[in-house]
Amino acid sequence: MKATNFLEELRESGFQVWIEGDRLRCRGTKEPLNPEILGKLKAFKPKIIDSLNKERPEPFFQPNGSLVIPFDSDPKYHYWKTGGMKLKDIGKEFSGRYGPLHIVLPKKESHEEGK
């Protein structure tokens, strides 16, 4: 059995599996985690963590140029938290072959323009 198949089976059975810091967390349904499931969790732990990390949403730019950093993205993008990346470092992560992407801020609309 592959780790991804095991993870799918857990979810289909109603188990919640997530990463908290560098720890793998699992919450069962009304039935407790039995020794067989615990054994598989321990055996597949590194692969499950890797799989869950790949599922995390990445920061992205909206069409208007706003940078969106999903709350459940990789903690390295959470520059507002202690130990996170700085905004300029996040920009470096988005560097492409034509250079870094620039954040374009929308223009403030003036209420006087209509007068």
Task: Provide a descriptive summary of the structure in words.
This protein is α+β, with helices and mostly antiparallel strands. It has two domains: 3-55, Arc Repressor Mutant, subunit A; 56-107, no CATH class. Helix content is 33%, strand content 12%. The chain is built from three helices and four strands, in the order H-E-E-H-E-E-H. It has helices spanning 3-12, 35-55, 87-93, and strands at 16-20, 23-27, 60-61, 67-68. The strands form two sheets. The chain has a two-stranded antiparallel sheet. A two-stranded antiparallel sheet has the order 3-4. Helix 1 crosses helix 2. The radius of gyration is 20 Å and the shape is elongated. It starts with a helix and ends in a 22-residue tail after the last helix. 5% of the residues are buried. The model is unreliable at 98-105 (pLDDT under 50).
Task: State the main characteristics.
single chain; 115 residues; alpha+beta; Arc Repressor Mutant, subunit A; two-stranded antiparallel sheet; 3 helices; 4 strands; elongated
Secondary-structure topology with pairs:
Elements: H1 3-12, E1 16-20, E2 23-27, H2 35-55, E3 60-61, E4 67-68, H3 87-93
Antiparallel strand pairs: 1-2, 3-4
Outline of the structure:
By secondary structure, the protein is of the alpha+beta class. It has helices at 3-12, 35-55, 87-93, and strands spanning 16-20, 23-27, 60-61, 67-68.
